[in-house]
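Let's study a protein:

===
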Amino acid sequence: MNRRQLLLGLAASGAAAFLPRLALGAAGPRQAVVGAAWRGPNKSDPYFAGALVADWESRKLSIRYAVPLPTRPHGLLAEADGGLLMLGVRPGTWMLRCDGAGKLMQQVRLDDDGATARLGGHAVVSADGERLYSTETDQRNGRGLVGVRDRRSLAKLAEWETLGIDPHQLLLDAEGHVIVANGGVPRTAEDKKFDLHRMDPSLVRLDAGNGKLLRQWRLDDPRLSLRHLAWNTSARDGRARLGIALQAEHADATERRAAPILAVLEGDRLSVPTRANDGIGYAGDITAAGDGGFVTSSNQAGLAQLWQPAAPDTLSTVAAIKETYALAPWAGPTGGGVLVATALGLGRWHPTAAPALLPWPQPMALDNHWVLLGES
């Protein structure tokens, strides 16, 4: 580990007094506001979502607002006013919107109107800001869907097939078309995996106007489920790359432990750039970081690892802390950093700035994903 990695490791091991004094310079941000979801320390505790404020100078993390949730959440989208749009975890039955003060503005339940589709846990706003695209599964037959909704009312306008099963995260490409990760895992209506020998993961590009299939990609190994997505563009070569977090579903434990955890789409080519992994075969989240690269998190291994196109064969550790999971890009003084949720608190890594680990403001267990709402 280099010095920045070592500092995070020591902080995570309980040396709270070792947390560094923070100095980003006059141009650096003093605070970061993160939209997050959490529950109390016990599995039976209720879930909340809200805004957490990281104050780098005081080395404190506080809760700006917290909204009670009906069940466990998954994906979060930032709203323009500092609020959040939240979705229930797969098979999700609700969407909920709050404003920047934490006031509940809307709640939609998919099971109120007899709909057979259930949420995959992620959504993205269309390029024109008028529609919301959400991953869904038809519970009658397992077909993967993109639900097209009015951005303001959340009313469903259309359903598009994803040409696969188990769709998870989706993003827009540079042209505003929809990129969907079909996880490919057969699941029951109760979300139990079965018949994994029939897995068929794929990445699809759908026309943002009508849902027409424009392109479909597959990896050579059908037991690598494509789950989470992040875009990044390198200042070095100007190329846009899509990073895809992989989760291995091999029957053999040795194969799972050796499985890669990252795929990259560059242009029209989908590839696995490195066999380096986490020793588990499970990347839980991914975010843009470094110069055109990505950080993946592995909560089971307690690792966050950086991949960069300048060194495509390797993964370097940026944090080694228990329950490393939710990731978000953090600009810091020059860009390229990352915010990491851990068992002990919010971690910060940057290639040039001092690292930090801010303890949670109360006993809380963070959920899988979070989103940067702003910096100041």
About this structure: The first strand starts at residue 31 and ends at 39. Residues 3-12+33-375 form a domain with the Methylamine Dehydrogenase; Chain H fold (CATH 2.130.10.10).
